[in-house]
């Protein structure tokens, strides 16, 4: 007489089947999640680049890093690297702009300090 199959063997087969299905669908959903997040990051970078070119820049919303607990799909790695390079370029440009603004403000402050208040600068000799 053959031994009876263990009751858990059927559920193990179902679990294995479910995990195969999950493995097949998880990467595509991860891909979509990461594509959406990279789209958001790209939009943030574009807004920052536009702000740097603007004569009247508007404040940017506070940036939040991605909070995704799944790995970046390998085929999206080149896009992510490109976005990272653009983020670094924007950060460098913002730092340069800030340093320039600080220098201009210091010059303006020094000019104010050297000008006595309410003292005439010109004398009208023809009057």
CA-CA gap between termini? 130 Å
Which structural class should the secondary elements be placed in? mainly alpha
* Overall spatial form: rod-shaped
Instruction: Report the count of strand segments.
Output: 0
Instruction: Compute the CA-based radius of gyration.
Output: 31 Å
Q: Average pLDDT value?
A: 79
Strand percentage lies at under 5%
| Total DSSP helices | 2
Low-confidence stretches at least 5 residues in length (pLDDT < 50)? 2-11, 14-25
Helix content: 55-70%
Biggest β-sheet: count, sense, barrel? Answer: none
Question: SSE order in H/E notation?
Answer: HH
Structure description:
The longest helix has 47 residues, at 7-53. The protein has helices at 7-53, 77-114. Helix 1 (7-53) runs parallel beside helix 2 (77-114). 67% of the residues lie in helices and 0% in strands. It has 127 residues and is mostly helical.
State the gist of this model:
Residues 1-25 are annotated as: Disordered. The protein is built from two helices and no strands. By secondary structure, the chain is mainly α.
């Amino acid at each position: 007489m053959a031994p009876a199959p263990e009751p858990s063997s059927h559920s193990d087969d179902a679990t294995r089947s479910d995990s195969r299905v999950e493995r097949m669908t998880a990467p595509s959903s991860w891909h979509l999640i990461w594509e959406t997040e990279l789209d958001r990051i790209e939009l943030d970078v574009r807004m920052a680049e536009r702000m740097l070119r603007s004569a009247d820049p508007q404040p940017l919303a506070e940036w939040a890093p991605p909070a995704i607990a799944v790995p970046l799909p390998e085929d999206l790695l080149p896009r992510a690297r490109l976005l990272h390079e653009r983020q670094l370029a924007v950060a460098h440009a913002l730092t340069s702009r800030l340093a320039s603004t600080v220098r201009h403000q210091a010059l303006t402050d020094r000019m104010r300090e050297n000008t006595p208040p309410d003292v005439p600068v010109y004398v009208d000799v023809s009057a």
